[in-house]
Prior knowledge:
Elements: H1 3-11, E1 26-29, E2 38-43, E3 74-77, E4 83-85, H2 92-100, E5 104-107, E6 113-115, E7 120-122, H3 128-134, H4 140-144, E8 153-154, E9 160-161, E10 167-168, H5 175-184, H6 188-194, H7 206-218, E11 227-228, H8 231-240, H9 253-267, H10 278-283, E12 285-294, E13 310-319, E14 322-324, E15 343-345, H11 346-350, E16 359-360, E17 366-373, E18 379-382, E19 385-387, E20 392-394, E21 398-400, E22 406-407, E23 424-425, E24 429-434, E25 441-448, E26 453-458, E27 461-465, H12 467-470, E28 475-479
Parallel strand pairs: 2-7, 10-11, 14-18, 15-21
Antiparallel strand pairs: 1-2, 3-4, 3-5, 5-6, 6-7, 8-9, 12-13, 12-17, 16-17, 18-28, 19-20, 22-23, 24-25, 24-28, 25-26, 26-27
Helix pairs in contact: 5-9, 7-8
Amino acid sequence: MSQASTSESSAKRQPDEVPQEEDGAEHVEETNEHTPRRQKKTRRDCPYLDTVDRHMLDFDFEKLCSVTLANLNVYACLVCGKYFQGKSKTSPAHFHSLESNHHVYIHLTTKKVYCLPDDYEVVDPSFADVQYLLDPTFSADQIGQLDHLSRPSAALDGTTYVPGTIGLNNIKATDYINIILQCLVHIPALRDFFIQKDNIAHTKSPLVHRFCELVRKVWNPRNFKPQVSPHELLQAVLAASNKRFQIKKQGDPMEFLLWFLNTLHQDLGGTRKPGSSIIYQVFQGEMQVITETPVKGEGPSLSSKTSEEWTTSTTTVPFLALPLDVPASPLFKDEIEKNIIPQVPIYTLLTKYDGQTVHNIITGERKRYNITRLPSYLIMHVKRFTKNNFFLEKNPTIVNFPVRGLDMKDYSSQDVVAPGGSTRYDLISSTKHEGPPGSGVYSAYVQNKGTDQWFEVQDLVVKDVIPQLIAVSEAYIMIY
C-alpha cells in the first residue's frame, strides 16, 4: 500500500471505528485486584501516518533491538524499519523517536501500533497490511485453495510473484539449504501442517517455529517484496545443529535434508513408532533387507559357496529417502575430444530394490532389498558425490526420470501400495547441482499446481522452465 493510499485511508475513517470513545480518550485497564489501575491512551488519529514507509519494512530478520540486541519487548520503527526495545522514556525506541523524528512503531509480538514519544496506541485499519506481513495467517478455506492459485500477486514495487514460488535470499553460501526449503514448502501435506500455528503450539522448538514462519511467509499473497529471507530459520539451524551446517560454507543438501527432517520429527514429539509425527506420516516407508553372511571356516571361495554355506537373516528397516547408486561414468570422448556424459534410466537404478538383485558388500555379505511400505511422498537421491581423505568427486551421469507416472510396482512387495492407493508417483520437486564438486551452484525445480507451470529457483532468481529439461538435468534429489 502506498503512502498516498495510507493518507486516504486515514482521511476516510468513520467515527465508529473505536466504539464509545472520542479522540484521545483513555482506556482504564484493570489487571487484577492486587495491582493498581493503569491508564492506556488510544487514539484513532495520528499526525504521522504519512511518514510510514512500507518499502523499508522487512520482518524476516531476527527480532533483536539494534541497540541492546535484546529480544524482549521489541518494536519496529515503521519509518526506517529498524528494531528497538521498549517504549518507556528511557528505552531505545523512545530515544530514536526524539533523535530521528520517527514516531510510528509496531510491537513485533502483539502487532499493536504506537506513536512515540507521546506513547499512545494508534488504532487505524490502514495498518492491516503491515500487521499481516508481520504475522500471516491462513483460514482452512484459504489453505484448501493454495494448490489452485493461478493469479499472481503484486509487490510494492509492482513486481509480480506467484505465492509459494518466490526467491530466498542466499546469505553467504546457503544455496544448499535454500533448495531444500523450496522443495519442502511445496509438499502439500507438509505445507498444510506447518502453515497452521495451532499445529505446533505444543512445542517450544525454535527450529519448528521458524520453519512454520517461513512456510507462511513464502505462501503469503500480500508480501511487500517478491522474495523472503530465511535468516531467522538459518540461525535456528546453526544453533540446533551445533554449527554442523554453516552459513558461510556450502554443505551437502542431502545431509541437511535428513538432519532437518529427523530434528523436526524429534522436536514435534515424534518417536520410533510409524506415523508418530507429520514427518513420518509424510515421508517414512519401510524396506525388507535380506542379508546372506558366509559361514566362517575353510572351504570354497565366496562365489562358489552353496546355499548351505550361507546364513540368511531378514530385517525390516524404515527409511525417509531411497539412495540411488549411479554406475561409474566412463571417460569416453567424441571425435572432437570432448568427454561424453553418460545417461541412465532411473528404472535401472531402482532394480536395487526389486528383491532379486544381489549386492556384494565389501565385508563379504550379500544383500537384497525390497520395499514393503511405500510412503505418501517418496524422496530419492542420486549418489553423485564420493568423499575420501583427499578430495570430493562428482559423478556427472545424467539420470533420466519421468515427471509423471513413476511406477514403483516392480520394486515393492506384492500388493504394496502407497497411502493414496497406487504405486505411481508424480514429481513434486527436484534439485540439481551444476559445476565442480565442493562448489558449483544448487537450484531447485518446483511446480505451481494452480497453473501446472514448473519453475527453476536459484536463490532469488525464479524463471519458467519446461518439464522436459527437468528430466535430463543433473538431478541430485527428487521428491515424488
